[in-house]
Every structure is written in C-alpha cells, then in structure tokens.
Here is the input.
Amino acid sequence: MSDFLPHPFWNFSLEIYSAEGVAEACLDLQERRACDVNILLFCCWLGASGRPTLTADRLRVILKVSDVWQAEIVQPLRRVRRLLKDRPWAEALPETVDAARRRVADAELAAEHAEQLKLASLHSPPPDRDRPVEKRLRAAVGNLGSYAVCLGVVPDAKDRVSVVALMRGTFPMLSEAEISQAVGVATTTV
Here is the structure.
C-alpha cells in the first residue's frame, strides 16, 4: 500500500474497516442496500473528526461524483475480480487465474483509494477534535441517516445492527448502550 498517498480519511478507513464487525457490516449494507462502502466510511470519518453533519442536499452533490466513479471504475473491477474467483476457468489454471484476480483486486483497491481522496476534496470542513465525542457520534449517525435519505431507504432492524457495528468501530471508547441509543436500537438488560 506504499503507492497510496497518505490521507487522514484513508488512514481512518483502514483502521475502522479492520475493527471487529465493521467489514461485515459494510458489505451487508453494500449487498442489501447498494451502499458505497467509501460513502459509509466517509460519513463515519466526518462525524468522528468533529466535522458538521452532512445535509442530504450536500451529500447528493457528492454522490453525483462518487456514483459515476463507482459505476464506471470500481464496480466493473469488482465484477471482473468476482468472475475470476467464481467461474470454472479458475479451476483450469488456478495459479494464473489467482494471480490475475489479485492484480484486479489491487486495481480495485487503488480505485477505492482514489475515490476516497476525491470525496475528501469535495467536502472537508475543518475538523474539531474538541467537539464532545457524544456530539461526534450523533454527527456520524446523522451522516448515515442523510445517506439513507439519499438512497431512499427507510432503515430496518438489520440496517441498524450494521450501523451499530460501524459506530463501535468508529467510537470504541463509547459503551454499547451509548452507541445503541444514538442509533435507535433498544438494548436488552439481563
């Protein structure tokens, strides 16, 4: 990954994506709700860094750019990578096909990195690390709510479970109860 330009958003994404349950939550929302994982992470990063909550109108402007990049660059690379993994020819020349799949996966990751740099350039008001963590949590949840509005999605229980996982990765210093309350998930006490 040394070829990638460093950026606080990219560094944040690498850290949060490796947190327990976050990758699964992102992929669940990608598969079920057609979410762009980079937008999910962007919403979390903006909130975590103390930036103001995105409005749905502002996010729509950002999505016009990222949706084109996703449709024309990232998704075709993802399709090719999956084809190389799932088709019968993978059995015929496994080492050769696996090498090709790894190269396509590297290109897909590079495209995701480029999208993140573009997202940060489109909207990156100054961070406020002094903003109380509870307000940063509410901003991150609010950003994800704005994204749901843009997608025309009414979040269901599965969506909320995924958002809780994202928030746990983003705000590990907060309790499960604090995160669940902010997301609107009832916690059970035993």
